[in-house]
Amino acid sequence: MGNRVAHLLLLLVLCYGLTMAVGLYREEKEDWRGDSEETQAGREQEWFMLQDSKRVVKTDAGDMRVLRNYGGRIMDRPIHIGFITMEPRSLFVPQYIDSSLILFVRTGEARVGLIYEDELAERRLKIGDIYRIPAGSAFYLMNAEEGQRLHIICSIDPSESLGLGVFQSFFIGGGTYPTSILAGFELETLSTAFNVTTDEVREIMTRQQEGPIVFIGDSRAPRLSPWTKFLTLKEQDRLQHLKRLVKFQQQPSEGEEQMTWSWRKLLNSVFGQENKKKGEKAGKSPDSYNIYDRRPDFRNNYGWSIALDESDYQPLKHSGVGVYLVNLTAGSMMAPHMNPTATEFGIVLRGSGRIQIVFPNGTQAMDARVKEGDVFWVPRYFPFCQIADRSGPFEFFGFTTSARKNRPQFLVGSSSILQTLRSPELAAAFGVSEDRIDHVISAQREAVILPSASAAPPDEEEEVAAKFEKVQKVIKSVW
């Protein structure tokens, strides 16, 4: 009896080992092209949607959250997507970061100050403006408008980052929260560098505690911050105070001037140029580019699309990032296509629809319903399409991982590669006659953006109505 039990246990162990070995072999052979259908189905809804949201800044005056992209072997280059919200009369304090940003003003108006080639450049940005902030360049953002919130979407390129997180901020302005990078030096060192007393240095290094985004000259500020106090002074008094802070009274030596130049320019911009006329610019930084002012690259009755590359806006060349904007009318479709030069990141600005993505082996990678605020990405070479709901327009904005001119290859439509490839060889590849393949390819007379009422997903009200109609039919059949 004991031997039989022992043999049975041995047989079970051998079967288990064989099962594990076969499973390991299959696991090693399977990759993203060959996962089981169950595995693919479980992952497909999350692979190409950016959902790892991290709030990196949160104050009463605004916040910033980032959707992180971890990259991977099918991604040529990771890009994070940031969302900045600022209340009226607020300031994102002077800083520099270890990643380059491309800003897109979604709503509101902004004032951005940037040190560019050792000079302070200031630009006023409005809805639709694109503006680049290089990694390591000191800058600030201000929502100077009354009664209007500022919303900015930005790409965050970590290619030059320190790898300490999504990105690393180095706050120039600050106090106890955020802490200024200047606070790491000894008081005597700063006193000598600024040519002021240690008490004056201690005062400006400890007063700010409202966070990286603060109210400016607003009753909602918890108390008068140093920024607010500066703005309540008359212009001449502000200038004198700044001169005292950054040693304007005396001509600094060459070394001292190099040390304080950038800091001085930033402070003077925020506090000494408040009365600039709207739209006036200073400095030699490149201008912003308004994507809504550009004529669409393609337009028909079903929508339009715009793509910006380095030939349109030269600063994109330095980041190696492109920008695009697409608007689809209700029920229309951006024809199935693929991007041969770049990975694409998309942010839904308004409306809702579906994103369909296909694996290289011809299986479906994703068929996801998306709405305003959702972020998706499509790897280079992967076929995909976007379909607007029938309930209204579908608009999405995004970034690509190449600043070169992108020439998407459309797989369907009157300008598709199938039209170009029409030949006996193509018919043979599909295993049908030439007449048959010609009939299918030529049936669609539109290009790029297509009418697609049958493919467009219904809105929620239509779905509810359809379900209610089915219930009614069931009740009638019973009676």
From TrEMBL:
Gene3D superfamilies: Jelly Rolls (2.60.120.10). Keywords: Signal. Residues 48-202, 289-438 form the Cupin type-1 domain. Residues 1-21 form the signal peptide. CDD domains: cupin_7S_vicilin-like_C, cupin_7S_vicilin-like_N. The keyword Glycoprotein does not apply. The keyword Signal applies. This is Cupin type-1 domain-containing protein. It comes from Salix purpurea (Purple osier willow).
